[in-house]
Write a structure and sequence with these properties.
The protein has one domain. 20% of the residues lie in helices and 47% in strands. The chain has one helix spanning 56-72; strands spanning 2-8, 13-21, 24-34, 39-43, 46-53. Strand 4 and strand 5 form a beta hairpin.
């Protein structure tokens, strides 16, 4: 897996994770923001799993762990829906 910066905006930074599967590349985006002491982020497809790191490399390692845990079933995948309120 490798990581690359996707784009920046004032509130946070969105990155993509490149996952090689055979001869195909898959991309997974993540978002992070700077807290008072740590960088706090989540995979965009799994926003319920927040993690933090002291620097970008530390945060990336934690995001990779979360991705792998979801893929191997260690973390239960949660599903999202849309609720009509009006």
């Amino acid at each position: 897996m490798s990581w690359k910066r996707h784009y920046n905006n004032p509130a946070n930074t969105v990155w993509q994770m490149k996952v090689n599967k055979g001869d195909r590349n898959w991309y997974i985006r993540y978002t992070y923001e700077k807290g008072e002491r740590y960088l706090v982020g989540h995979l965009d497809d799994y926003p319920e799993y927040l993690t933090q790191g002291e620097d970008i490399q530390d945060l990336e390692e934690h995001l990779k762990e979360i991705y792998n845990w979801i893929q191997d079933g260690t973390l239960e995948q949660k599903y999202h829906g849309v609720l009509k309120i009006a």
